User: Fold this.
Amino acid sequence: MQEQKEIYINKLRTNYKVIGKGKPIVILHGWGGSSDSWERVAKILCLKGYKVISPDFPGFGKSITPLKIWDLDDYTNWLEDFLHSLKLKNISIISHSFGGRVAVKFAAKHSTQIEKLILCSPAGVRIKPNLSTQTALYANAVGGFILNKKVLNLFKGSIKSWSYFFLRNSDYVKADKAMREIMKKVLAEDLTQKLVEIRAETLIVWGEKDRLIPLKYAYVFKGHIKNSKLKILPKIGHSPHLEDPEKFIEVIFKFLC
Assistant:
């Protein structure tokens, strides 16, 4: 039976779920997600003999939003404190998208604490933008100029939302003010050079049809993480754990065994 718990990490109330007994696996959800979005995967892993711990990052799910504008280091330090508070060692980590950013930075510093690392559609590296993205960035810049005109002040919100839509940053539009600023700081960091510092055995899982973080980024992760394998899931998009959790479990279970 899954338990929902709370713990205070540096005075921030953190919600997390625990299910099962056995080897510990920590799941780090993506931006806009929470522990709720991993319940099906957690239940299947529980049946396979694992203890699954799924926290809500600060600012997500039922956890409190940070009192200041956090960057990626803050989230990484929070993860260190969370694991220490629960006395979790020799863990496996499953991470998705934004959670992959945190996992990469943590693993680069603490590879010896990780038995196995799974990066599912991770974010955090940069490739020179293609023409369509450059066009969207230009449109956003022009939009910012237009917004300076008093005559269009009434349309300011809708124009901003339109420009971010073309940048595929719908999470930014949906976030509150504090989380928007946090998102900006988190996105500002390129983790490419951190990948080479990861020593843990790593599985990179990517959906063939991922439009949010296209497949070309998978090869950057694979090329930089020395002890890594890449598994591409046909006809799957950015969230394999939601689109086909059984297939996702099949892939990661082979790696975990």
